[in-house]
Write a structure and sequence with these properties.
This protein is α+β, with helices and mostly antiparallel strands. It is built from 16 helices and 21 strands.
Length: about 550
């Protein structure tokens, strides 16, 4: 195996929405050298790999940024960082206009105004949204893109980022990348739980299966503070196809109904978690299956839905075609997905300040990996990339101290190379990464509130989950790989297991049920004002230590030096 050492001013880990936009901002405002590492390819990576048919975070006419803050706060039942939400909301429209300038088609009416969907969404032709961003980044000066390079660990010394280590999946190269500052933009964590579609399609999910929680895991192991992992995200999706339901619910105003045709959504509430919870309860109580009521919509709406899903989830359109029935002729059955840890929908992720600094010096977080700021979606991830990039450039211009410790990073790299070689040369492997991943998903499903337990759990179950996941972590240290592609899978397994342990500790720590289904604690089935606070965590001496912090409300701001 080859080894290669690179040096840059700024390293961006993850070439999705947030990472690409951060690179654009850095190039426009400085001459700093940038390296972007993406384990897939920036043209088709991250949540937007397959495209999207709407921008879900936009301040529509008559609305204000504070309105968006209030909406997100209500949906998360108060557990948000209002300072992060406001700094995001204030820039949603400007990044949207920039996307349009780059070539994204945003639908407009006869008066030239954007076509809205609901109070916060814009309709777009977004199949090519990621290639548009990638093309813009590929043209940047002083920017090197390393596609198919999987970053597996930070280089941190005295709580200061010094770079990262990675694997070139195609060129069999071990990389060490020295950097003055790093943006982590690796997305959330999928694949922790057993899905609805196991076996050959166990990774058929709405969220990218290659988003394994790598950014979380690297931060956890480096001692970064994390927040609100217990606010899991469970998506309500079209059965079997895992297609998003918002296009139907908001696009044609379809209500959630049970098998008797009764509208049940208002019975449980209309927040994101309540919509999932209502569907679960209707099935438990024998009134399932549950549907989005599309029967009776117009022919024009039929065509609109089929076209919309072709740009985002073609399997749903194919299902309608194969059945020989349009949406107007049959309701769409719905169900919940397995739980995810994802900071773009909920508030899970790195604990950051308003400039998106993490608690590790010169490490910034943006997008799904950053916590405290739910409902950010595409445009919000771009905003966080912009905020992080601007702050990083300014601070690097002012900073002259603490150069990279050459001997320290070289020693750490040697240790990593030995670790890689041990996995590649291991002839005593008992279990494959796939077997251990399957076991992990079964454990999380059975004991940590997965689909099989109706998303419910108790403390005894969580203790068992922790015990079993720790055992799997031990077994994961003895996996083998035949090449760098399999080596990536070995590290993805370890990443997921690290996130699982942190998630379990967060679920245990919040002694209430604030978000039905998202955090359904049977030992504490009621909501309590005592838990109007953040549940944070930090790895200390190999164990996850829980930290609680007071809420940051309207007009307040949290900075790491507060």
């Amino acid at each position: 195996m080859k080894t290669e050492k690179l040096t840059t001013d700024i390293l961006i880990i993850g070439g999705g929405t947030a990472g690409c936009y951060a690179a654009l901002i850095i190039s426009e405002n400085s001459d700093k050298k940038v390296i972007i590492c993406e384990k897939a390819h920036i043209k088709r990576s991250g949540c937007l790999a397959a495209g999207v048919n709407a921008l879900n975070a936009y301040i529509t006419e008559g609305r204000t940024p504070q309105d968006y803050v209030d909406y997100a706060k209500h949906d998360a039942d108060g557990i948000v960082r209002e300072d992060l939400l406001l700094t995001m909301s204030e820039r949603l429209n400007s990044v949207t206009h920039r996307l349009e300038q780059l070539g994204l088609v945003i639908l407009k009416d006869e008066n030239g105004k954007y076509v809205t969907r609901g109070n916060r969404n814009l309709k777009i032709n977004g199949e090519n949204i990621k290639p548009i961003l990638a093309k813009a980044v590929e043209a940047l000066p002083n920017t090197t893109i390393l596609n198919r390079v999987n970053i597996i660990d930070f280089a941190v010394k005295d709580n200061r980022i010094q770079g990262a280590f990675g694997i070139g999946i195609d060129d069999d190269t071990f990389y060490t990348i020295e950097a003055k500052a790093v943006i982590i933009a690796t997305g959330g964590a999928a694949g922790l739980y057993k899905p609805n579609n196991p076996g050959f399609s166990r990774h058929k999910m709405w969220y990218p299966p290659f988003n394994t929680g790598a950014g979380y895991a690297m931060g956890i192991n480096a001692g970064a503070e994390m927040t609100t992992f217990e606010m899991r995200f469970i998506a309500l999706r079209c059965k079997d196809t895992i297609a998003p339901t918002g296009t139907i619910a908001q696009g044609v105003g379809a209500k959630q109904v049970n098998s008797k045709g009764e509208i049940y959504e208002t019975k449980y509430g209309l927040t994101t978690s309540q919509r999932v919870y209502g569907t679960v309860m209707e099935n438990i109580e024998g009134r399932g299956p549950c549907y989005l009521r599309t029967e009776g919509i117009s022919k024009a709406q039929d065509e609109s839905l089929k076209k919309a899903y072709l740009n985002m989830a073609p399997s749903q359109t194919l299902k309608w075609i194969e059945s020989g029935k349009n949406p107007s002729e049959q309701n769409v059955e719905i169900e919940g997905t397995e739980p995810y840890v994802v900071g773009g929908h909920t508030a899970s992720g790195y604990w950051v300040d308003t400039e998106r600094r993490t608690t590790i010096h010169n490490l910034f977080a943006a997008g799904d990996v950053a916590g405290g700021c739910p409902q950010k979606y595409v445009t919000g991830a771009m905003v966080e990339g912009e905020i992080a990039a601007n702050t990083m450039c300014k601070e690097l211009d002012e900073e002259t101290d603490a150069p990279v410790n050459e001997s320290g990073i070289d020693k750490a790299f040697d240790e990593k190379v030995n670790e890689y070689n041990r996995i590649l040369n291991n002839k005593d492997c008992v279990y494959t990464t796939e077997q251990l991943e399957d076991a992990m998903q079964k454990v999380m499903d059975a004991y940590a509130g997965g689909i099989g337990s109706h998303y419910q759990f108790n403390e005894k179950q969580l203790e068992l989950a922790k015990e079993k996941i720790k055992k799997l972590q031990e077994l994961a240290e003895n996996v083998s790989a035949d090449d760098c592609h399999e080596l990536m899978f070995a590290y993805e397994l370890k990443e997921r297991l690290t996130v699982c342990i942190t998630l379990i500790e967060h679920l245990k720590a919040r002694k209430e049920t604030r978000w039905h289904s998202f955090d359904e604690n049977l030992d504490y089935p009621e909501k309590s004002d005592e838990w109007l606070k953040y549940v944070n965590s930090k790895k200390v001496d190999g164990e996850i230590k829980i930290i609680t912090r007071q809420l940051v409300g309207r007009g307040e701001s949290y900075e790491h030096n507060n």
